[in-house]
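Amino Acid Chain and Its Fold in Token Form
===========================================
What this section holds: a protein sequence and its matching fold, both as plain text.
Structure line: whole-number tokens from a learned vocabulary of local backbone shapes, matched to residues.
Purpose: to set a sequence beside its fold so the mapping can be learned.
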Amino acid sequence: MINQSTEKKDICLIGGGHSHIMAIKQLGMRPLPPNINISLICNDQFILYSGMLPGLISGHYRPEDCYIDLKKLCNQAKITFIQSEVERIDYLSKQIYCNQHARLSYDLLSINIGSQPMLYDIKGATRYGCPIKPLKQFFQSWLKWLQAAQSTDEPKHIVVVGGGAGSIEIMLAIHYKLSHTNLPHVNFSLICARPSILSSYHQRTKLYFEDYLNKLGITVIRGKRVTAISQHKLVIDYDMTLNYDFVVWATHASAQPWIAKSGLKCDHNGFILVDQYLRSVSHTDVFAVGDCANFIHTSIPKNGVYAIRQGPVLANNLIATSCNHSLLAFKPQKYYLSLLTTGDRYAVASWGSLHAHGKWVWLWKNYIDRTFIAQFNQ
């Protein structure tokens, strides 16, 4: 009888999110067992690093500064890169069906496909809203609008829907960019469903950004929800209307609809339920990481910090499962460092109740981001 540790094992990674790129980096730093083959399936070879998107919009970075080449990363780690869209997964037969590739079989599967802003329950949002994710498509839509807007002198109204950190950073990045173009008469509005912006942050950080938005003349509409959207018009709480020229949809994370229909056990919001080992609670041969997953016994914010930290644990557990070794538990930290940019080369640092701001914070963030992305593109 063949020892199980010598049997051929096929590991498939679906999605090029933060957790997977960190896992691939870790896997490439050590020799893989000879019986293990790993493939990454992603619909795009180049992914835009979310931490640098505000700086890219502001004009502080070039596009090539902010992209990670998945094919190059996989080649370095001796992992097969497959550029294709996954159409369906059969968890019973362990088959992955892609639209531009032959059917794939797997022994272990990991899903890291991120989340998306809440769109599907708002009339007209999928047609007229410009969601912040996927990031690459959003940036292309922004550039297309900006180019068209610069050909006319008519007043413009930019609206960002959402009150979290990503919403604030995108709004301030757009404000900075447009204040350094020849566009006259641009108004800005931020629509926040909660009573205050940055609801998960310390009061000092909230107040700083409240004051800064007010200083820039950005209108903040609090405690209101967009209930419908049509071409150039938003409906707020069913009775108030607001005209717009460009609207960014950056609301809280929602699960991609197909996940809940796929057969994996999900929570009431459609996110894949996982245990402390990042493993599906319903399918022990499936792992899920990053924004598309929720832990069954704890709750953590959906951001890049936790996704990145899951990468090394995932890398270990995929190999450990294949070799019948014990798994590592993911232990999320209570607090995490948040560095929020203000459009210009200035940023705010927040860690629990600690708060600081200045040009030095932006330089610090710039160093962290450039160092992070360089490790994948070297």
Observations:
- The first helix runs from residue 18 to 27.
- The chain has a mean pLDDT of 94.
